Amino acid sequence: MTDSCGRFITFEGGEGTGKSTQVKMLSAWLEQRQIANLTTKEPGGTPVGLELRQMLVCGDKDKFDAVAEALLYYADRRIHLTSKIWPALKQGKWVLSDRFADSTMAYQYYGYNKRVPRQTLTELYHIAVGDFKPDLTILLDLDPEVGLERSLAKASKMAVKETRHESRGLEFHHNLRNGFLEMAQAEPERFVVLDANKSIEQLHEDIVQTISCRFGIK
Ligand code: TMP
Fold first, then answer.
1. pLDDT tens digit string along 167-210?
2. How much is the pTM?
3. Deepest of 1, 15, 146, 180, by most Cβ within 10 A of its Cβ?
């Protein structure tokens, strides 16, 4: 998948950073400018992906290991790419995804959280995704203590508790944050890091400014 004319924008970050709200707000902003776009998420951007999501984000954190997790996240991603992301980009739509492959590197990578070796994840990336990558990745950075509190408060109001990763403890989430920041430093041309402690409206303004500058949209 090389000749896309749409743009692929991913939102990344730890728990409770407000990604899904910002994805919706950016989608509305693009609509106002007659830019056709599609919002989606990982895991669970497709019907099969929703079944995988249930397995991945609910239940005991140790019900399977990180290698199994990485394989399932990549199965979800491959289905997502082939049935939704790539066809939409080919039609010229922008695709805004709440999480993509950087989440696997942050949550399942050996170096950041002593889980799966980096090389294994890089190989899985090439098998499932090839040379394709996001045009822009917006990393919403937040102190994990604040993010976890927000995320657990939201989960307490939901019938299905999607808290499998939230239950990994604060150290895991600090490693995760550092992992994301390291990735952003390593690829500054793809990543933009924004402070997710700002109000929803301020953060939206920052995102809109980034998009305007990067892609020349008024
Ligand atoms: P969220 O959609 O509410 O952020 O939930 C998805 C959960 O799955 C979240 O805890 C992050 C985790 N995750 C991974 O561990 N690896 C991945 O590759 C992805 C996409 C998500």
1. 888 999 999 999 999 999 999 999 999 999 999 999 999 999 99
2. 0.95
3. 180
Is the minimum distance from the CB of 77 to ligand 1 under 6 angstroms?
no
Assigned domain for 217 exists = no
Residue nearest to ligand 1 atom 19, measured at CA: 103
Say if residue 1's pLDDT is above 80.
no
**What residue numbers bound the domain in which 140 lies?**
8-212
* Domains contained in the chain, number: 1
Domain assignment present for 96: yes
Q: 93 φ, ψ to 5°?
A: -80, 155
Note the pLDDT tens digit of each residue in 21-39.
999 999 999 999 999 999 9
- Please choose from 41, 53, 57 the residue to mutate so as to test ligand 1's pocket, defined by most ligand atoms within 8 A of CB: 57
> In ligand 1, which atom is closest to the CA atom of 151?
3
| Integer Cα distance of 145 and 147 in angstroms | 6
| Alpha helices (H) along the chain | 19-32, 47-57, 66-80, 86-90, 101-108, 110-113, 118-128, 144-156, 170-186, 200-215
Residue 218 counted as domain residue: no
Q: Note the pLDDT of residue 160.
A: 82
Q: Is 73 in the pocket of ligand 1 (CB under 6 A)?
A: yes
**Pocket flag, ligand 1, residue 94 (CB < 6 Å):** no
